[in-house]
Amino acid sequence: MPYLGGTLGIAIRRGEIPGFREFAPAPPGWVEGGGPLCTGQEELENKDNEFLDISNLRSEYNVYKAVYAFAHSLDNMLHCKPGKGPFSEHSCATLQSLKMNFTTPFGDQVSFDESGDALPIYDVMNWLWLPDGSTKVQNVGEVKRSAFKGEELILDDDKIFWNFKSKKVIYPPRSVCSDICPLGTHMVRRKGEPECCFDCIPCSEGTVTNKSTDCLPCHKEFWPNSKRDTCIPKPVEFLSFQDILGIILATFSVLGALLAIITAGVFFYHRTSPIVRANNSELSFLLLISLTLCFLCSLTFIGAPSEWSCMLRHTAFGITFVLCISCVLGKTIVVLMAFKATLPGSNVIKWFGPPQQRMTVMSFTFIQVLICTIWLVVSPPFAIKNLTTYKEKIILECALGSAVGFWAVLGYIGLLAAFCFVLAVLARKLPDNFNEAKLITFSMLIFCAVWITFIPAYVSSPGKFTVVVEIFAILASSFGLMLCIFAPKCFIILFKPEKNTKKYLMSKNQS
């Protein structure tokens, strides 16, 4: 029997019937109720017996509630006035359809369901095994169903007796094999063991668990936090003006543009000097303007991509570079024509004068403008969210729209650069002390090397580093043209003025 100590069970609700405690122990009531005649000196109140405890009755208490429910129903029917009742069309209820809802003096709510059955209420009982061998059953809670709160289980944990060997243990016994898995993990049942035995395994990458036994994937623009118990928005990455790389590239871009403007200022101030006039000053100024635009167009690649910035960055880059290469090509042709013109009986210079030079630059540039226009009309670049390169972040970038259009722009630039390089190589051995063709050859060599290495680097670079590679190629090739073509001239103008004479420029090397 001691093993049954601590048993929990339910019993019919026990309650107190007001006035019954004073009525039942009185001898007249006992005799009138059919009981045997007593001496009249018995004191039932002092007897500690389960069967004599008439203050808390079970079956009798339910009879008491039934009688009161019937009484409340009759009272409501008697006081109901036709036309003012609580039912449809303000009618009064019949006894069969009447449903009561009241509270007893003991605090219990009495109500009925749709079928007319009383909503149940039970006591939760705990069986205590006392040290002296006696037993005691005590009420430790209740389980009930009410019309307002639904089903409820109310327990007083402090009153419950748990039958442990160690009397120091006061906590409830564990009735599970494994604890509930914490957030961020999911259950994996152990083979060959009861269903309540399982291991808690962390959720896999990209999934979370939140009040669930399974790990669920996040939305494509979200990623789990470190605990994997909730999804948070993925960070958005692009080359911004706040990034260290963005600041460095923007600084070099602005410095390059300032260098081109300063060089143009030096050339304009010394525009009447022989070295400026001998190198086709009109094409030189146009080349400096195009180089300034080349430096500045790299700024359009920095910042969050948008519909307009994506179209601007590629078209501005393509057109300004073709303008730049066209000017270099024009200067190369001028050098060749100028040398041919020095030969006896030659009149080729009239076929490539300033009007022809302007027309050449405009024609080559117009072709690139036409390519860019077709690209923008047919399938222009546009901003996208790249969700595939990295799982844990979003890359904002410009999609090419039409890859054919992009590579057509690059291909045309490469074709002009190769043509210019070939002409410069042909003219590199001209016997002038100041050989323009050699400088153009070296600048085109740097230009072609930069853009040849750009292609594999551009294709293989992930995320925002694709933009970094493109900006680096623009700046490197622009600085190459700037330094190779104009640095020697500026050095002579500023630091070697004795060489800035017509006599020096027209002198020939000894063979």
Automatic annotation (TrEMBL):
Listed transmembrane segments: 244-269, 281-304, 316-339, 360-384, 404-427, 439-459, 471-495
Instruction: Classify the source by domain of life.
Output: Eukaryota
Topology in membrane: Multi-pass membrane protein
Chief localization: membrane
Q: Which UniProt keywords apply?
A: Cell membrane, G-protein coupled receptor, Glycoprotein, Membrane, Receptor, Signal, Transducer, Transmembrane, Transmembrane helix
> Matching Gene3D superfamilies, A to Z?
3.40.50.2300, GPCR, family 3, nine cysteines domain
SUPFAM superfamilies given for it? Periplasmic binding protein-like I
Gene Ontology cellular component? Answer: plasma membrane
Extract the PANTHER family matched here.
C-FAMILY ODORANT RECEPTOR OLFCD2-RELATED (PTHR24061:SF528), CALCIUM-SENSING RECEPTOR-RELATED (PTHR24061)
| Name of the protein this chain belongs to | G-protein coupled receptors family 3 profile domain-containing protein
Recorded source organism is Neolamprologus brichardi
